Amino acid sequence: MRTRPLKVALLGCGVVGSEVTRIITTQSADLAARIGAPIELAGIAVRRPNRVRDGVPAELLTTDATALVKRGDIDVVVEVIGGIEPVRTLITTAFEHGASVVSANKALLAADGASLHAKAAEHGVDLYYEAAVAGAIPLIRPLRESLAGDKVNRVLGIVNGTTNFILDKMDSTGAGYSEALDEATALGYAEADPTADVEGFDAAAKAAILAGIAFHTRVTIDDVHREGLTEVTAADIASAKKMGCTVKLLAICERARDGRSVTARVHPAMIPLSHPLASVRGAYNAVFVEAEAAGQLMFYGPGAGGAPTASAVLGDLVAACRNKLAATTGAGESAYTQLPVSPMGDVVTRYHISLDVADKPGVLAQVATVFAEHDVSIDTVRQQGRNQGGGDEAATEQDGGPGAPPSGSWGREGGEASLVVVTHRAPDAALSATVSSLRKLDTVRGVASIMRVEGE
Amino acid sequence: MRTRPLKVALLGCGVVGSEVTRIITTQSADLAARIGAPIELAGIAVRRPNRVRDGVPAELLTTDATALVKRGDIDVVVEVIGGIEPVRTLITTAFEHGASVVSANKALLAADGASLHAKAAEHGVDLYYEAAVAGAIPLIRPLRESLAGDKVNRVLGIVNGTTNFILDKMDSTGAGYSEALDEATALGYAEADPTADVEGFDAAAKAAILAGIAFHTRVTIDDVHREGLTEVTAADIASAKKMGCTVKLLAICERARDGRSVTARVHPAMIPLSHPLASVRGAYNAVFVEAEAAGQLMFYGPGAGGAPTASAVLGDLVAACRNKLAATTGAGESAYTQLPVSPMGDVVTRYHISLDVADKPGVLAQVATVFAEHDVSIDTVRQQGRNQGGGDEAATEQDGGPGAPPSGSWGREGGEASLVVVTHRAPDAALSATVSSLRKLDTVRGVASIMRVEGE
After folding, report:
1. CATH code of the region B6-133+307-325
2. Most buried residue among A325, B43, B84, B342 by CB atoms closer than 10 A?
3. Closest residue on chain B to A298 (Cα)
């Protein structure tokens, strides 16, 4: 084994950085044996050097991150600061000074992965970021390497623990969104400002990264259609249960059937209870990958937290160090397909629509005609009284044909009723246009909820 | 991109080999883009060259595998023949002639992985075998690379699809073992001679490979304690259900609590229905990994079949080709801990024991005394009449203390009853000795079933 150590600089020393430091300092013999040379923590850049950090050697702390990455003797820079700047500049500077970079920065990678990869390649160093997606779960490396000889057609995942905790709570207790968010905040699963999680920004960044790797193209967060879960109601969850489904905030990356484009989106969706993702509880993450030869794979584990994220960072650090020792680099960006990202309107999906309608004859015929006009087939229709969940309901199933109204009259005279329609698969644009037209019907008093149905 | 192709030799062209050939020939542009150079199938060694193989170029077939691996211009040899010899000699010869090897051969790797790794290292080439364990599921690479900075303490997996199909069938239909095996055979999930699967040899080979990689030591199939599922009865499955459990054939690799040894074993076990492995259905595989920093991870997917196995082979092939291009090698064997493998007697587990006992007073006291004498604590005791599943039963729970008999008499006069005891955790040797002593009791007419309880 080489005795001269590889030098590691750490940028950021919060929850993840402290854990990375702890593992590097306490597991040094194991890491050295696995790398083939010892590693040495050469410096830790922090904003507040006087904060108490257990187990972090005070003499390594510096507030000058730029000087640290410019030292010239650093083999690998580990970045766990987050955000776009100054991190982008620091990473680029690290590359220019010959260091490989291990990052947990989903926002930066989703915004600007291509130029960072290009810069790393230009300087003959590695850029690894397993920790940027789904915490400890090995996902980037399996997609990039284990499935390198396969053709991935779909990635469907729960990649945000905060929102999964909230939805799981709503599902198991019947709580509303606000109540579940409050509990997530109290337990530390949600941040004081939960926007990045509940509005789907965090999941959208991860979707962009996953789609780019899975389809060998470039996808940025701006390409990802994004809907958060703030509008998911207890009634939506109850509707899902009636269908044998549960609601999850999903990141979905798909190759179009003709293979000429890809899509990436984040939104709440109903998935059947029989789907492996349906049983992912609490703050856990899981990602389902469908590949042509491999079939259906699922990767499951803790999606966040100091230690799990540090595990992913350390795996990348060992790989980057091994490559440094062998004077080589690992697999870099693979974006050769240059497949374009199609807009949400092109995504083929199904809608579950709850309508508040006038309770009178002919309503269903009117509604069904609107679906037919947009060439959207109806799978099932369920009519129920205002007292949701009561026994006063009827259901019919159709075996295809765009929205032909069932014979007979469903409505009762006067008052309001609700009509739950589940469609067959259709382009999102057609489904969305159908909903717009429905809103214009006199007999439709309101659209109580719209949710996509996935995972079937 | 380099235009001179990398040359690949294929040994074996059965179900997996045909699929590997199909992907190499039909996905050549994608593979070239991902590797950085085209690959060329230079020869395919088969035993029966005249057999019809759709999509396999007849001009590439040869019966002389040795000459093929000796050509000297082969960059990577893909071995999907299986078995120990002549494969070991062919692989060694390939190394000597400068070729990296991708293998799906669990038996060989579990018998002799260390010497093959040494030979590969000696010749500066790669030995990859993702396909040897759990088919398409990325497992070897995540364990070896993604978790390279973590400390794995436990690997618990369903790694044999045939036995999982059989147990799932027994669980869902109440069928007995023979009936379920017949169905597995009829559907092609079990081979005409199912010994390797049902006696646990296949799973034991995989356990040896996983344990060696997870704990950075050397484990061969001879180190793995092995029990098949041929003695699992419908009554065992029913007993498991009563406990809120299901029965799975598990491969379990563990680091001892003191960290100084490891264990590896394959046997049927009850696991709680709430455990993620409990819901792994049919011929699917899943492996649960517990690591210190990462926490609990699970990898799920198709564990066998031509296309899934080919996916894993192709992933390794791309990696081996990339390394050839870069004139480097990937991470090789990492067995630096040299942790010894402890015998089954040292494994700490729990037993679920069903006893046929004389139905008279004092029996429970006698039985409980035997547990106490072996320092085994009883968790629960359930007594039931001969008519299994009937209402005539009583249960007690104890809160620890080695097997103190509950007060009062449980037995009824005359006849037979059955007593179901679930222990707390204890060394397998003590549990096994307890069962031997129980068999010697006059009042114990027989031991109806013994099964370990895992995953809690």
Report:
1. 3.40.50.720
2. B43
3. B300
Alpha helix (H) residue ranges in B188-305 = 195-198, 201-215, 234-242
In terms of DSSP bridges, do strands B245-255 and B152-158 run parallel, antiparallel, or are they unpaired? Answer: antiparallel
SS3 A214: helix
Residues 6+ apart with CB under 8 A from A198: A162, A163, A166, A181, A190, A228, A229, A230
Distance CA A195, CA A307 (A): 24
Q: How far is CA B382 from CA B109, B269, B364, B418, in A?
A: 44, 19, 10, 8
How do the residues of chain B divide into helix, strand and coil, expressed in percent and rounded to 5?
40, 25, 35
Pick the catalytic residue from B7, B119, B206, B324.
B206
Any catalytic annotation for residue B206? yes
CA distances from A139 to A115, A136, B141, B299, B364 (A): 22, 9, 11, 10, 52
Q: Which residues, numbered 218 to 277 in chain A, qualify as contacts with chain B under a Cβ-Cβ cut-off of 8 Å?
A: 276
What are the tens digits of pLDDT across the range A254-274? Answer: 999 999 999 999 999 999 998
CATH topology classification for A140-303: Dihydrodipicolinate Reductase; domain 2 (3.30.360)
Which numeric CATH code is attached to B347-453? 3.30.70.260
- The catalytic residues of A are 206
Alpha carbons B441 and B176: distance in angstroms, whole number: 30
Predicted ipTM > 0.90:
yes
Compare all CA atoms of chain A with the CA of B299 and give the residue at the minimum distance.
A299
Domain boundaries, chain B: 6-133+307-325, 140-302, 347-453
Give the homologous superfamily in CATH for domain A345-453: ACT domain (3.30.70.260)
Residue of higher predicted confidence among B308 and B383: B308
Q: What is the pLDDT of residues A168-195, one digit of tens each?
A: 999 999 999 999 999 999 999 999 999 9
CATH of A6-135+307-325, one of 3.40.50.720, 3.40.50.300, 3.40.50.1820, 2.40.160.40: 3.40.50.720
pLDDT in tens, A16-47: 999 999 999 999 999 999 999 999 999 999 99
Name B326's Cβ contacts closer than 8 Å, sequence gap at least 6: A328, A329
**Residue contact A291–B319, C-beta within 8 A:** no
Level-2 CATH architecture, domain B140-302: 2-Layer Sandwich (3.30)
A326:B322 CB<8 A: no
